[in-house]
Amino acid sequence: MTLQLVQVNFKAGDESALGRFWAEALGWGLSSEGPGVINLEPVGFDWPDPSAVCVDLVRVPDPETVRCRVHIELATTSDAHQAKLVARLKELGATPVDAGQGDVPGTVLADPEGNVFSVLEPRELYRDTGPVAAVVVGCADPRALVRFWGEAIDWTVHELTDDRALLRSVKGVGPYLEFRRTPDDRAVRSRVHLDVMPDPVEDQAKEVARLEGLGAARADVGQGDVPWVVLADPNTLDYQF
């Protein structure tokens, strides 16, 4: 397989301000590839590399607020680290949010534009992921989604149950991709999607055909005439490359 998961893409009303928040939150560098786009990645990062899934913020005229089916979870190394990170994120503009999480040890916050994310309590599983522990996708059937994504990208399945599936790069580095069963999995357009990239990049058409054979479908999200292809997986999650 030749596809890599390279970044999480957020739609933003003010990409510069949101970029500053996430650069501070993650301790990453901030750059721009053009007007309306902010790129976040670890300082000195040689992109693309599975040791990190980067973040792109793209300005759109009206970044509609909808229930987020994709969110990121941040790793911590101790209870003190978790408390300190939560306090710092609130100072940067994050706010506590009730996403129906109930009584859990992690802290659920929303960034300044309302994107929900979690700051996890220290877990051994995430001790070497970097600041992003996992990219989490809500879905109706984790087993079905892992069948698709397990073929789509070159990642290994680490856990698989009816309620949760975990994948990670075959190199054993970087964050996990988690598919988590959610009780209300309606097909809605999300402000967040995944970006994947073929290696070599010239294999784009070949990889599009392969993904369509696995069950992906072309998607029109208003992208217009662009060099990338937007697809939806069997869970109707938008992603592009």
UniProtKB/TrEMBL annotation:
This is VOC family protein. InterPro entries: Glyas_Bleomycin-R_OHBP_Dase, Glyoxalase_6. It holds the Pfam family Glyoxalase_6. The lineage of its organism: Bacteria, Bacillati, Actinomycetota, Actinomycetes, Kitasatosporales. Residues 8-119, 135-235 form the Glyoxalase-like domain. PANTHER family: CONSERVED PROTEIN (PTHR35908:SF1), HYPOTHETICAL FUSION PROTEIN (PTHR35908).
